[in-house]
Specification:
By secondary structure, the chain is an alpha+beta fold. It folds into six domains: 184 residues, no CATH class; 63 residues, DNA polymerase, domain 1; 208 residues, Nucleotidyltransferase, domain 5 (2-Layer Sandwich); 109 residues, no CATH class; 85 residues, no CATH class; 128 residues, no CATH class. The chain has 31 helices and 30 strands. The chain has a seven-stranded mixed beta sheet, with helices on both faces. A six-stranded antiparallel beta sheet has the order 23-24-27-26-25-28, covered by helices on one side. Strands 19-18-17-20-21 form a five-stranded mixed beta sheet. The longest helix is centred in the middle third of the chain and has 33 residues. It binds iron/sulfur cluster. The site of iron/sulfur cluster (SF4) has 12 residues, from helix 2 and helix 7.
Amino acid sequence: MHRFEDRWVVSASDLVDVVECGHRVGLAHALAAGLVTGETSENGPRRIDRVRLTPADTTAVRHGEAHERRWLEHLRRCFGADGVVAIERPAPTLAALAQAHERTRQALAAGVPVVYQGALFDGAFQGRPDFLIAAHLDPVAGASTGPAVAGRYEPYDAKLARHASPGAVLQLAAYAAALPSVGVPVPRFMHLLHPAQRATAPEPEPEPALGVGVGVGVVRTFRVDDVVPMVGHARSRLADRLAAAPAVPEPSWAEPRSACATCAFSAHCARGRAEARDLSLVAGLRGDQRQVLRAAGITAVEELAAARDDQRPATMSPATFAGLRLQAELQAGQDATRTADDPVGTVTVRMTGPEGLAALPVPDPGDIYFDMEGDPYALDAAGLEYLFGAVTLADGELFRAFWAHDRAGERQAFERFVDWATERLRAHPGAHIYHYAPYEPNALRRLAARHGTRERQVDDLLAGHRLVDLYAVVRRSLRISQPSYSIKYLEPLFLPGARQAEVKNATDSIVAYESFLAHRAAGELAAADRVLAQIADYNRIDCVSTHRLHRWLLGLRGADGGTPRIDTAAAVDTAADAADDALVDAADDALVDTLVAGLPDDPADWTGDERARALLAAAVGYHRRENKPAWWSYFAALTADRATLESADDCAVPVSWTVVEDWVEPAGRRRRSRRLLQARVDPDRPHPFDRGEAVRLLYPGPPGAEGATTDAVVERAEPHTLLLRESVAPDGVARRPPLAVLPGSPVRPEPKPAAIRGLARRTADALPDLPADPALDLLRRRPPRLVGRDDLPAPGEHDGDQIAAVLAAVSMLDGSYLAVQGPPGAGKTYLAGRLIRHLVEQGRTVGVCSTSHKAIENAMLAATGQPPADPKPADTRAADARAADARAADARAADARPAWRPAVPAAKKQRSGARPASAASG
Ligand code: SF4
């Protein structure tokens, strides 16, 4: 925000601040007015600190700018240097802002394809979208998608993050809402430009309208209407704030939230929390738990440490309260021992769950201590797992490193590590791979899927419990007096003084690897080697630390301090195999190898047919890979501790259980015993379940073993309670309450994997030719193949009757496909009904599929000339129809094309200019 003579001018990022953290807005307002806090320090009144960029921040900024530059260069290649007009950054004066705004308006009025860093300024708001691109242009293909409509532009922002944050979407919407100030109507769509592919955690994405992936990156499209109301709300909240006299918020810090990670005030707020001994300092205490405790009058670490049982908030379970109180007590104790000479103080440990230690496997000479390093910015921000480090025991701690510096190297390093580890575990059947926290197994899964290699070996390691997460063991069995359970914080207990080197943590290692890449690119090979040696040393210490932690944990367990681990690998294997029979089908590998044999290494060099072969090869294992995470999380939940389950979004750990109806024996045709349970959940952690949903109820297992689950159906789902009908075999009746409600078992994909495998086999047999097949037509991006003509029949050939044109096209298909698209209300279901009748009358068999049973039923009813099932109330239907009419009219105006029509495949779209659209069918 900027204060000019007579007014405040806010930016899109100020609006994001309103949404992400109102406290930040207050601090920025006070800082802009030059205020200081009411707090004092040794040097007098305390100023509000803005943090300077750390090396990690600088790295992120540099890569963000490079990502934006790549898109800029791509657009210049597509539309020519004259087709992209760049607006200079204006000086922070009203006159300069107005001039830049006017230059932007003129460029847009002239119909330039792309305006880069255009200035939008309406006197109170200023924004600079990375790109304003004419609405009829496809920035990915660099081509027109339809006739140009004068003065229609859409905003695009380049974002390095793969995840579309609410702030990024709000920022875009603010630009979209400000476009009328330069004579452009508010557009229907706005877009984020992400990097092509990231190697970091596979995150679930919010639901965008469309997503298109290409070499230069991924375009994620959002509907402006969905978000613009939030812009108005944020602007008015910000205006209210700025209308009031600036004042430093009291207190001048606020509780942590996700936005703190990138906030310029993070050090300021962190110091405030530390000085106030805020509850957020307690390791593992969540934000919602902090609120509940504060509401109960417990606001500081020491207060929680001294809290009585009767101070427990009603919505917090006794076990959770006791655990947090113990953590606070230990931390308060350690903090009391800190001095200037000994800033860490005395770290103490308390055993809370010996069964966690009992779960440790028996040590074996073949054990491996494993740690990986990754750089999310490498390879144009696509990310790279560049080091697989391992320590084994033979005459001391022997370190070995598997390095990768490009994508092909990543595959090789991954394969070499997995082969080496698998071979070692085969030679040492009692050995395990120890790691700390879930990064390593997640990365192994991701790499197996990414490179389509060693999937079975990785699966065997995971399903066979050969990877052991010592972090999970620590969390389940111990309380440590440190404010974090990162392994570095635990080291004073078993490896004091380990971190003397330059690279001390994961962030340092990313910065160091970036510096290695820069040295290497500059030809400074000696310097590059020096940096690599530092990273290797950091990684070695992590592996050694994992080994020493293991030894220390075994020492805590004592010679007879626990039951040996109960290895349930066999049971897991059985279930996993039943869940995914492709896992044991070695023929898949041979099939994939045949399909991809001879393809160039770089996908950019593939021809259309080669790309189709690669896609088909990837599809061979698709359902196996798709289902694996669900099964892994299924099995992970069986051994997870309460805190882990409580923090998971897909399950619920009720505060209390009530038996509403006790067990009823099987009777009549019912073979299972049933009971009705009511679960009351913490109101601050809403459960994720809906009425009618199939779920599982988790019963913790004995020490060291997995728990068991039973089936249940949600009979009623209210915000704070669940009514669950549990059913079990008669001999599985439990008298105790479950611990948690878990999602239902993953959906089994059969028979789709077999169908894909069949197509892959036919294709492999026909190579180097590709057989004529509708699925291959899609993968090859070929237009529908017709008998006797090349192009689809046009409605004009059938007196303008579009349905007749579709029926004619389907009748001419030469074993190919036809896609039909259209918005809701365009008549797709009616068309599907006519088409089904038409085909049945010709003696054909018709398969109908959809993601919803209702859509299938409606298509079948339409085929028999009946109205749709479960019609909506008249007013809802009318509203839907009006909305559909408006959308259709809007689409026609924007794209100058009918509401629905036979769709052309992507390759043809790129040539002819049709906008990519979501597929739609009856
Ligand atoms: S550090 Fe966190 S709480 Fe403080 S202003 Fe920034 S986002 Fe808000």
